[in-house]
Amino acid sequence: MQDEITEISNKKTRDEDDNSDSGGSLFSRSPSPVTEDGKERWRMSDPPQEIFDDGEWKFQIIGEEVDHNGQVVEWEDWYRKDGSNTTWETAETISDVQWKQARQKARHEMASKSLSMKVITTTDIHNTETHLRNDAYNEKMKKYSKQKEPNLFEQMEKLMAKHEALDRIAAQGSATVERSQAGSSKVSRSSSRLSSKSSATLLPGHAESFAKSRHPSVPSISHSYASSKPSSSMTILSSASPLSPPLPSKSIPSLKGKEKAVICHFSSPECPSSRESLPLDNHQPSSTFSSSSGEPTAYKRSKQSSPQHSDSESSQLLFSSSNRGRKRSRHLIMSGSEVEDADIREISPFIPPKVAPHKKNSAASSSSMDDSLHRRLELEKAWNIEAQRMGAAPIYFVNDIDDEPIPSVDPHFRYIEKSYEFAPGIEKPSDEFLLRCSCKKCTKAIYCDCQHPSFMLDEKNVPFFAYDKYGLFAFNINKGIEVIECNKLCKCAKSPGQCPNRVSQIPRKHPIEIFKTPTRGWGVRSTEAIKKGQVLGIYTGLVITREAANALPGPLAKYRFDLDGDELANEEEENPSTLGLYSVDSRLHGNWTRFINHSCSPNLQIYLVVHDTPPGIGLPYIAFVANQNIPIRKELTFDYNPGQSSTLEEGADPCHCGSNECRGFLFF
Ligand SMILES: C[S@@+](CC[C@H](N)C(=O)[O-])C[C@H]1O[C@@H](n2cnc3c(N)ncnc32)[C@H](O)[C@@H]1O
Question: Is the per-residue pLDDT at 337 higher than 50?
């Protein structure tokens, strides 16, 4: 049999060579199925049968590509027993397929990565590999059925026990600190008390999907690309109150290996991080760091020991003492767990803000002051721990307008600096679908494989990058086009800073103040001047379907951002990348960008960028870039709806952007 196949394939190669000059399509190059002396050389399989059953066309796709013109396709990865490898297949003949060894291995690897089947809601069937995965998955399940079924409940119990153990350690740690600081200020005591613990919990609905995941059912082929049926995968979300992670303490287990742990108080001159970063008047929030002497308050403070900056305060983190110089890898230890992130290049300190002087000396006012201050510190702490873990500059809350200490965020809100969370039923496509390049340095887009599907082409169809050599956005693309950045799998990019085409992935370097405005709720500004073209961050949150987003009642839709790039389109312009499948909801997960207010004359604009999802599937990030030089502490704004005219529509709120070009109303 094998000889026959080899013979057929050799013959085919000879024939192809003979016809190699004929040009034209793959099919015009194929030899005639009949030889000159009238013998059958090879036989084409029949075209697909159009079987309409309940209105569905039943066919299966073998391999990764199909020809849209309905012509015969030759496949590289498989052959039939008779040696042919052409065309579409009906379900009945599919068992005949022999996978080539390398592909077989790849399929099994793909299937073994996950027990759940990915269902990608996309019209792009080229990328779904639906049959391939389905088939490989079935083979794998057949193999598994002979083995002991993995008990996922047991695994979950183990996981929960582990988290409980960590909680106990953290609780003991906090108690140790509390005892050792008896007599210190109220703020530090209450911040210990309010520190919460982390535990793993199954959210409502997940228990069911978890149980299902023990006997996952393989979605049918037609489902896989005809609908966005939720997959049976399980999600365990940590319910650790992100607002108050446990305080690190001296009783926390030490660093791995030989490195010695030192306690770093941000306000202490001993702290490597504070020494590097001070004095940084740009990094200080306006109301909290004004200093009459002109010397930055935070710097002055670092020289004195204040009870407000005691060990138990939120700004306490542990760093590895092996740090040398600025570009080192640090170990950041939080609540007994160690996070190592070589990408953390510049850790800016979270410096506890100055306490405003008490005007009234009554116990009541001082306790409410403590409470406000405490709430602000807690939120700043939670957000900055996460921002800092991602190597991003600090975030502060400032209110010079009234007594509201912080914006009202949901108690379960979780800060995410630079990625999406996905709602149950929506899965992030696996990294297998990511493009990758093998350039050493991505100096020219034309040589960078990541740019092949890009629409960023000049008039000669030559691709170009979206950023200039200084890492600034070049404003050279049509609105709505997805910028394709290199990703973690590319050869060029060991870390975002090393590739000129990973700009939106570089940790944010500008500190952010979330401040109360007189008329627009809370807004955003930076404590540093910002250059035109500087990319500031991406909108993060929970990815939900468009249907779910449309069902959100008005007030809840405030933090919704549709991933269709409509905000980029002008009235006259068609948006080329409108897929409109998903929205991002930043009510429960998100970052500082959720506070960016609208202006009819904005100083930021947005663009679409992909780096950890494939292009063209409706899951880009929304990146914010300065469209002009922005002075220090000027409010950062973007236009929520650039195509909107100023005609009043029902439900529109009055716009208070204050611009001369104000269109008068806010539209969503
Ligand atoms: C995404 S939120 C921005 C953050 C918001 N200011 C807050 O305090 O949470 C959008 C909401 O902010 C308010 N907002 C934003 N820009 C505004 C403007 N130019 N005029 C009036 N209200 C504005 C509106 O209430 C709007 O629904």
Answer: no
> According to the model, what pLDDT value does residue 455 have?
80
Q: Provide, rounded to the nearest whole percent, the portion of the chain with pLDDT above 70.
A: 44
Average pLDDT over residues 535-553: 93
> Is the pLDDT at 31 greater than 80, yes or no?
no
Please determine, for residue 323, whether its predicted confidence score (pLDDT) is greater than 60. no
Instruction: Decide if 255 contacts 331 (C-beta within 8 A).
Output: yes
pTM over 0.80: no
Strand partners, 523: 515
**Among 598, 644, 646, residue to substitute to test ligand 1 (most atoms within 8 Å of Cβ):** 598
End-to-end CA distance of the chain: 65
pLDDT range class, residue 219, cuts 50, 70, 90: very low
What would the two tokens of residue 429 be? 């496509």
- Tell me if 333 sits within 8 A of 318, measured CB to CB: yes
Residue of 319, 388, 394, 292 lying closest to 352 (CA atoms): 394
Nearest alpha carbon to residue 277 among 61, 106, 100, 527: 527
pLDDT band at 240 (very low <50, low <70, confident <90, very high): very low
Give CA angle at 630 (636, 518), nearest 5°. Answer: 40
226 burial via Cβ count (<10 Å: 0-12, 13-18, 19+): exposed
- Do β-strands 541-545 and 420-422 pair in parallel, antiparallel, or remain unpaired? parallel
Query: Is the CA virtual torsion 563, 567, 570, 572 positive or negative?
Result: positive
Q: Which residues line ligand 1 (CB under 6 A)?
A: 407, 520-523, 558-559, 594-595, 597-599, 655-657, 666
Q: Please identify which residue in the block is written with the tokens 């390398």.
A: 102
Shortest CA distance to 274 belongs to which of 312, 301, 295, 238?
A: 301
- Residue nearest (by alpha carbon) to ligand 1 atom 26: 558
CA of 558 to the centre of ligand 1 (A): 8
Query: What is the position in ligand 1's atom list of the atom closest to the CA of 600?
Result: 19
**Residue 50: C-alpha distances to residues 53, 58, 128, 132, 481 (Å):** 9, 7, 22, 21, 37
CA of 595, closest atom in ligand 1? 4
**Atom 10 in ligand 1: which residue has the minimum CA distance?**
558
Q: For 8-24, what is each residue's pLDDT tens digit?
A: 334 333 333 333 333 33
